[in-house]
Amino acid sequence: MEDELASICSVLGASWAGAKAMTATSGPGFSLMQEAIGYAAFTETPCVIIDVQRAGPCTGQATRVGSGDIMQAKWGSHGDYQVIALSPWSCREMFELTLRAFNLSERYRVPVMVMADEAVGHLRETVTLPAKVEVWNRKKRKHGAPFGTEEEDGVPPMPAFGEGERLSVTGSTHDAYGYRKTDDPEAHARLVQRINRKILKNRSAIVETEDYFLKDAEVAVVAYGFTARSGLYTVKQLRKDGMKVGMLRLKTLWPFPEDAIRNLGETVKRLVIPEMNLGQVAGEVRKYCRCDVISIGQVNGEIIPPGRIEETLRRVCP
Fold this sequence. Notes:
Number of strands: 11
Order of helices and strands: HEHHEEHEHEHHHEEHEEHEHEH
Low-confidence stretches: none
Mean pLDDT: 96
């Protein structure tokens, strides 16, 4: 398409025509998509957005690395809604998490974002593709209410245009059948609460993290994306020196893995969060743990090298 506004709107139209649809962008293009992402969340339109983050704000350094879009992924559009955001650290996970993004999007009827970064985007690695993959298809029900459900998972059936259903897809407040209810406070509250609840109640099935050397750790690194590679290398080197350090890798950024952070914060003395921004995830971590949280923020368009993480860990480890 001619620009990111047209791209994301075409994706939403394709989704309502029955396709599994995605687009990819970075930086300013992601900003341009935010209004339509809010529309997708409110109309429960499955779609996948790949955001290969770069050094910003604005045009910034268009070919350099950054991780400054983490909060934008969750809060970029206005109002109360939920999205799902995943964080790959390798070429293999670019494949695996994009596939998972489609399955989550179809299962929960929600925009799902793959929050890669430039370092992963330009990475070259060998990837062995599986012979078979799991594919989740959206559920359908003849004459079912496409915007309301009494089912436990909170996800309504989704027909496509051309299947004989009477469909009204509006970004205004609507009832279970898509009729506008812009002056009805109960209809608005019911809809907003359900589109949030269907994600938050299923958090345990959505959120993924990975643990490394945490059983005896006194200090832990919390990392995501390409930076987690530097983090894990550093942890392995310091373990050789007898230091009790570990790492928690966040594969899911939204919904935020608050249970994993809360549990980890009860067992270690300090958490160290390296990230290629000025502490976006570090700020979120502080909400859910009582231990010391040390942010290593970097915004120079370069990856965070293991040496910088090692320097901090040696300084703060007991």
